[in-house]
Amino acid sequence: MEEHDVIIIGAGHNGLTAGVELARAGHSVLVLEKTNWPGGQAATKELFKGFKHSVGAWALLVFREEMIKYLEIDKEGFELIRPSSSFTVFGDPEDTPFIGYTDPIDLANHLLEDHGEDAMEAFSELGRYFSYFKEMFEKYIDETPPTLEEIIAAAPDEKTREILASLSYGSAIEVMRKFFKEPGKHGCILGSLSASAIDGTHMGPFTKGSALSLSYHYCAGDTYDFKIPKGGIGTLSSSLEKVFKRYGGEVQYKAQVENFIIEDGKVTGVKLRNGDELRAKAVISTLDAQSTFLRLCDTQALPTDFVSSVEDIEYTNGYIQLHLTMKSLPTFANQLEFVNGTEKSWLVAYIQSPEQLHGCWKQYQAGEVPDNPAVYCYFPSQLDSSLAPEGFHTCTIFSHYFPADIPKGQHNEMKELMVKRVLDRMETVVPNFRELIMDQVVFTQEYFEKTFGTTGGDFAQGLLHPGQMFGDRPVPGWANYETPLENLFMAGGGCHPGPGVTCIPGLNGARVVMGKIGAASKSETSQVA
Predict the structure, then answer these.
(1) Residues 463 and 456: beta-carbon distance below 8 Å
(2) Which end of the chain has the smaller Cβ count within 10 Å, N or C?
(3) Tens digit of pLDDT for each residue in 366-420?
(4) Using an 8 Å Cβ cutoff, are 143 and 505 in contact?
(5) Distance CA 61, CA 172 (A)
């Protein structure tokens, strides 16, 4: 029977990060992946011959660049592309677009010159307000955190407690209105902020608790700008796989885990769907909590209260991701004419205002396709020519609030309606947009659930809600990457500190495992480069 020090379930970026950390410490590590490619929901696929699309995650929004050298992926050719602006958010023709410049001085000048002194001051004050959350987040990013309630209660003074409570339990609009005080003004700025607030949640921007996702997105990384890996998002995991294998790690693809092998309350290995049994000192799951404990475990081996907590985790997350091949880059018109020929055109987003998103949220709750959906449209090949044949381009469109509760047999009809409305919106600024499309495929949360086994297709692996973060992530009382079953650990995006392509849960989880299983069984160990 095959034996390893550690078996890791999932060859996404967190699973491979954990593998790198363990293998270069000398442990024998096997990664099992149900698909036949690395990256999980952050993979680059040739959906159409000659064109590469990032399926699922597509950019590094909350990534810490020191991970590149620490994980040695720079030695495997990994390279980041950081454009001069992350996005251009537009609304109606009379609305002033908001440009997310990556240089703080450029951003300040844009706010002052195009939106006014009040907008520049409000944005700056909001940044100082976020600094309270960022300081708190940094304190616990590499360790087992207390619950949010405990963190806030332990804050040094009343002002800090009030701010942390607002940024954790308030609504996004409540936070923004502290600084952007005039309703109906600066719609594109507030719409952009609101888009961060609803990402990875089952909320609208006026919902209590939506401020937490806003805070997370603006505070979890080095800076909140959109960086893309050269070659597509999947190059992160493919580079990690090369480092992992360099240190002796092994990846087995098309290996579907049927269940954990549990003996006397201890996990001693896994059984694959083909009947093979693999043994290990420790097993790490990078799947979400419900997939880990309700699908792969005999729940009778788990405490009843724990199972109930797992069953209560919220995963409802509706969206579409539309991948297109394009004859050429579009020529923008009307309020976006100014982006033509500049990097500002690589990502344009229609987000009119928080009120627009609230309307979409209400229709989504009612099981309806939004009449006026927000649209995030980006052209990665504009920044990276390796993604498309010469003269052609790739395009990906994302939109929140595709219904999550769809009557049987209506999925395709509703998906087509959502795509129609999204493309209609793009044609308000690119009148011939449909004429530029050669091929298209659309994925919804249903695709990601079926393909990757992710509960509800939730890319956050547990929504960014106050009761599902810090000491309550993935399960209240189990934020330490351990589980009630001895030798079973978790280290995916469903764990602290949270989702997004960060590699941090995988790194933290691996370190906990090393502390538990002791020295490597190999005769020689490698040192961190």
Answers:
(1) no
(2) N
(3) 999 999 999 999 999 999 999 999 999 999 999 999 999 899 999 999 999 999 9
(4) no
(5) 19
